[in-house]
Amino acid sequence: MKKTTLFALLIFSVLGSLAARPAEQADETKAVVPELSAFHDIMYPIWHTAYPEKDYAALRGFASEVGDKAGAVFAATLPGILRDKQEKWDQGVAEFKKAVEEYIALSASGADEAVWNAAEVLHDRYEKLVRIVRPPLKEVDAFHQELYVVYHRHLPAKDLAAIGAAAGVLRERAEVVTRATLPKRHEPRLEPFQKAAAELLQACRELETACAGGDPDSVASAVEGLHSKYQALEKVFE
Q: Which region among 56-70, 78-92, 165-179 has the lowest average model confidence (pLDDT)?
C-alpha cells in the first residue's frame, strides 16, 4: 500500500474518532452560553449609546436585530455544568422573551418614551440571564469545573481511582477559594462566604480521607457531601 494511502486512512481515522465524540464533552464544563454572549453585540449599543442619548430613532432601528439574536437565546441549550440552573434559566428566558416582544412591538408603534422604557426593561431581563450563567468568582468556577467531572462522570461510573486522583486537585482549588477576594458588589456576603468556603475545604479533606480508605460507600458519601457544600457556597451569591 502506498504511503499516501496509509496517510489518508490515518487522517480519516482521526477525523472519524473526533466526529464520534459528543460535542458537549468539549464545552460541558464551561459556564458559557454563546447565544447569550452574541446578544450582547446588540445590547451594548442600545444600552450604552442609544438609551443614554435618548436616540429614539436608533432604539427603533435595533428592533429587527434584537428579534433575530433573541430567537437564538430562546432556543439556547445550557451546558452540562449549568444543569442545576435550568429552572431559573427557563424562568429568566420567559421574562426576557416578554421584554423582547414588548420592545419590538413598541418600536413599531409606541411612543418614544415607551420605547425608551422598554429598552431599560430589555437590558434588565438580559442582565438577569447573564447573572444566572456567569460564575460568581473565577476561583469558584475553577473548583466547579473539577467537581462537575467528579460528580457527573466519575461518581456514576464508580471510578474510585479517578475520584482519588481528583480529590487533591479539589482540595487545592478549595484552598484558593478560601483566599478569594470578593468583588465590591458581593462584599456584604463576605462572612457567609468565608464560612461556606471553609466548610467546602473541610469537605474536600474528608473526601481525601475517604479515598485513602478505599471504601466505595464512604467515597460516594464524601462526594455527595462535597457537592452539597458546593451548592451551599453557590447560594451565598443568590
A: 78-92
Domain end (from 103, 133, 163): 133
Residue 6 lies in a domain: no
For residues 133 and 130, what is the distance between their CA atoms, to the nearest angstrom?
5
Alpha carbons 215 and 220: distance in angstroms, whole number: 9
Query: What is the number of domains present in the chain?
Result: 2
DSSP state of 110: S
Give the pLDDT band (50/70/90) at residue 27.
low
- For position 52, which CATH number holds? 1.20.120
Give the C-alpha separation, 197 to 193, whole Å.
6
H or E stretch including 136?
A: none
**Which residue range is the domain that position 187 belongs to?**
138-235
Residue 229, Cα to own-chain centre: how many angstroms?
18
Compute CA 57 distance to the chain's CA centroid, rounded to the nearest angstrom: 35
pTM > 0.85: yes or no: no
C-alpha grid cell, residue 137: 468568582
